[in-house]
Write a structure and sequence with these properties.
Blueprint (H helix, E strand, L loop, with lengths): L8 E7 L3 H12 L4 E4 L6 H5 L2 H18 L15 H16 L4 H6 L2 E4 L3 E5 L2 E4 L2 E10 L3 E3 L27 E5 L3 H13 L2 E6 L10 H13 L3 E4 L3 E5 L8 E4 L3 E4 L2 E4 L3 E3 L32 E3 L10 H16 L13 E3 L5 E5 L6 E6 L4 H5 L6 E7 L2 E8 L3 H14 L3 H6 L9 H15 L2 H15 L7
Parallel strand pairs: 1-2, 1-6, 2-3, 6-16, 8-9, 8-14, 9-10
Antiparallel strand pairs: 4-5, 5-6, 7-15, 11-12, 12-13, 17-18, 18-21, 19-20, 20-21
Helix pairs in contact: 1-8, 3-4, 3-6
Length: about 475
């Protein structure tokens, strides 16, 4: 499928160098397609530079600090850690550097991918302008990701707030931080900075933090945060900001009356698709009301030659989703092998402490099977009894799950397989598992209902009669 360089025609032109674009580029290049990636920044996208990698590294440092402070629960003397914030951020950058070679220009070139470090703009069907380059393509993929939103709260933009993009530029640990938004990013980074020593106030306008999940999730996670001296305000709206973080005069005003002085403001209220000024209207690529590229089940846009993947489509915006988008685009766009993409049963994890993970259908016409971690031997013996597991079923089959607790992001993997395979509750309950492990909670949640169904008064009565009958013929010594 490769094209000669003379006619500058590519089998696949990708705009964007994040997870979706990288997987598509390597996959297409690996099978001999001619591929060009148009990306003005070092490849890697949000995950490597501003998202998953740096956030999980700083969370690890924060967890270590928390363990030191709470060691007394294990019979070990607790100590207040000395935080070298410069060293913490150096560790963050070290992790990025260690991982970045997988996504580097040099690595992409080994797959036969040509990289153009410019912004790309569609000028007509089959043609993209990128700096001084004119790129012709047979198929194209939009993988430009998304950018944090800074809402139009009076005075907020003038206060020099941080987002998940710019928080990594901090050189000193802020003494006081206000986090606006109680979603995944706000909870993860708010708790991380709190554990590192900042006095953190998290403000969520909705009725609870982590609003995409159930009320009990918010209670457990919010309770843990408050136990660590974080201030968590729910049903609270930031109505104005005065001053600036650059000169130490910033004051966040909540509900027109509560004034919270702070040194840094982290805005984590959502993200906007990067689709502006790309010439999409020129090639008939339609967007939804939030600016996401509209795609079908094959990830094809409203232009038959242009596909899209990753956060730019606004469906389950996670790195693992984006990677699978990239693989699907290669099959659908280049090889015409129909590969529908189902977003319904994609798991996700939030790496606050305790961790939160979920998959599938967790509300509506479902039956819930609940088990608390304070009854799980592994959690109790590890000193991490906070959390629970909920299994959701329809007609006895598992259709969804939510896990809150230690290693929830690992536990959800088995549950994702169970949901995708339509496993029955009885099958999960009967599987033999090592003791003591967190995985036992899955079986215990399943058994929480099955045991009640099995050991009811009617079944006990029937069992008693059977035992009496058999006992007449099987008495010892007769």
């Amino acid at each position: 499928m490769s094209a000669s360089t003379e006619d500058n025609m590519f089998d696949l032109a990708i705009i964007g160098g994040g997870s979706a674009g990288l997987v598509a580029a390597k996959g297409a290049g690996n099978v001999g397609a001619s591929v060009v990636m148009i990306e003005p920044n070092p490849p890697g996208g949000d995950c490597l530079w501003t998202g998953c990698v740096p956030s999980k590294r700083i969370l690890s440092a924060a967890h270590t600090a928390h363990v030191m402070r709470t060691a007394s629960k294990h019979g070990i003397t607790s100590v207040e850690p000395e935080i070298d914030f410069t060293a913490v951020m150096d560790a963050v950058r070290g992790s990025q550097e260690h991982i970045s070679h997988h996504d580097s220009v040099e690595t992409l070139e080994t797959f036969g991918v040509q990289v153009i470090a410019e912004r790309g703009t569609f000028v007509r069907d089959g043609e993209i302008i990128a700096g001084d380059h004119t790129v012709r393509y047979r198929k194209a993929m939009i993988a430009t990701g998304a950018t944090p939103v800074v809402p139009g709260i009076p005075g907020l933009r003038e206060s020099s707030p941080r987002t998940s993009d710019s928080i990594w530029e901090l050189e000193t640990l802020p003494e006081r931080m206000v986090v606006i938004g109680g979603g995944a990013i706000g909870c993860e980074l708010g708790q991380a900075f709190g554990r590192l020593g900042s006095k953190v106030t998290l403000v969520e306008a909705g009725p609870r933090i982590l609003p995409m999940l159930g009320e009990q999730v918010a209670e457990v996670v919010g309770g843990q945060m408050r136990s660590e001296a974080m201030t968590v305000l729910e049903n609270a709206k930031v109505t104005a900001v005065e001053g600036s973080t650059t000169d130490g005069t910033a004051v966040v005003i909540v509900d027109d009356e509560t004034r919270i002085p702070c040194d840094e403001i982290l805005v984590a209220v959502g993200r906007r698709a990067n689709t502006a000024n790309m010439g999409l209207e020129t090639v008939g690529v339609e967007l939804d009301e939030r600016g996401h590229v509209i795609v079908d089940d094959m990830l094809k846009s409203t232009n038959n030659h242009i596909y899209a993947g990753g956060d730019v489509v606004g469906k389950m915006p996670f790195t693992h989703t984006a990677g699978h988008h990239g693989a699907a685009v290669v099959m659908n766009a280049l090889f015409k092998i129909p590969r529908k993409f189902d977003h319904d049963n994609i798991p996700f994890a939030i790496f606050c402490d305790p961790e939160v993970a979920s998959v599938g259908t967790i509300e509506g016409d479902v039956e819930k099977h609940h088990f608390d971690y304070d009854q799980l031997d592994r959690a109790v013996t590890s000193g991490t009894p906070e959390g629970f597991i909920d299994l959701f079923t329809q007609k006895g089959k598992i259709v969804g799950a939510t896990v809150v607790g230690h290693s929830a992001g690992e536990t959800i993997n088995e549950l994702t397989a169970r949901v995708n395979n339509g496993a029955k509750l009885r099958t999960v309950a009967s599987m033999v598992r090592p003791y003591p492990t967190y995985g036992e909670a899955i079986a215990k949640a399943a058994n929480s209902t099955l045991s009640n169904d099995l050991f009811n008064d009617r079944n006990k009565l029937v069992a008693g009669k059977i035992l009496d009958f058999l006992g007449k013929f099987d008495s010892a010594g007769e």
